[in-house]
Amino acid sequence: MHSGAMNESRRTALSPRARWAVPVVAAVAVGMAFVAPPLFASADDAGLPTITPEELAAQVASAEPSPLSGTVVYTARLGLPEIPFGAVAGADPINLLGGSSTMRVWSDGNQRSRVALLGPTSEYSVVQDGPEAWTYSSMDDAVVHYSLSAADQARFEALEAQAEAGELPVQSDLPTPEEAGRQAVGLARTSSTVTLDSQTEVAGRAAYQLVVTPTSDTTLVGRIVVAVDATTSTPLRVQVWSKADTETPALEIGFTDVSFATPADSVLAFSAPAGSSTRDVVVPLPEPPTEAAASPDEKELPEGVTVTGTGWDTIVQASGLDVAALVAGDPAAAANLPGVDKTFGSQGAADLYSEFVPEDGAGSPMGDLDTTALYDTLTTAVPEGRLLSSALLSVLITDDGRVLAGAVPGATLQALAAQ
């Protein structure tokens, strides 16, 4: 079957099966791979026009999504122990914790896309076509189809028509791409230096490199660089370097080959493999925010969550957690995490929630994954509890039900936990 994926730009977010989630401890480390920016810079000058960091950021902000297809290689060198024997096999997102993974991606630059995570003997795919999405696991030979209800589908089409006509209401002035670029670089400069590295080549294409270097003396992150295609302003590669290793990036994701031609319709269309099982899930279309809704800056932190430090030294702490139940994949424990709101705006949202967190607490969204073995392998015993230490992130799980996480050394978390 063809591989596939959801495009998260301006469409409704349709999440894959929750069993592909990873434990709380591991999820933070995986997330760093996709929010932190790149550098394997060639010393050669590609002869591109001179540009400033602000101008490069503005070009990325104003670029229209491009149709593309290509191969993406993701490599993690986080210094974590190997995943427990038999914990996972084949193509599984949890393998992103270590080693290299290969993905094939296709997109029409609009509402249709496909991504496949490839394993030695299996494939996990996600396909999106407008408001519909499908996931397929060749290990389970199972398809999950996500779609909207008839009422939400009609509302989606109406919103889409408004967007195409430029009639969607805007509640406040939006900055120009140039202003957005200045704001982005200005924000980064509050805790980092922002420069341009030498021009380079990624997947055979000339690229600029935007480098963000933290000014903090204590963060684990050494530098972050974004390689940007000089023609399309599409990010081509992301690499994150740890201060502990200046020779090799701790995280790296980038194209090894890419084409900006529109993929064939047969590639973007989903067709369930013969003999596979299919499960249908109705996903609610979120209601638009009201003018009375609080902005993110005005929202308070969930009860039990505190934030210490700023910039690269930020530490997030959550208390009152049943860590043992979370590690075991107990849905009831996940439902009681700080910030989890069980008040839903529609019955569809409540039904979707129950797909992943059954009210009777039966079943685990982690499937057959041995989460306890994974937890024991990834963490080590310390006086406070258990500590996950990686090249870019530390997570401390205390015996009294607290979790502290930050891009700082484990000793920093331990000192804070002892206060």
UniProtKB/TrEMBL annotation:
TM spans (from-to): 20-40
InterPro entries reported in the protein's UniProt record: LolA/LolB/LppX, Sporulation_related
Keyword terms, alphabetized: Membrane, Transmembrane, Transmembrane helix
Keyword rRNA-binding on entry: no
Keyword Glycoprotein: no
PANTHER family per UniProt: SPORULATION PROTEIN YDCC
Protein name as annotated: MucB/RseB N-terminal domain-containing protein
Organism: Cellulomonas humilata
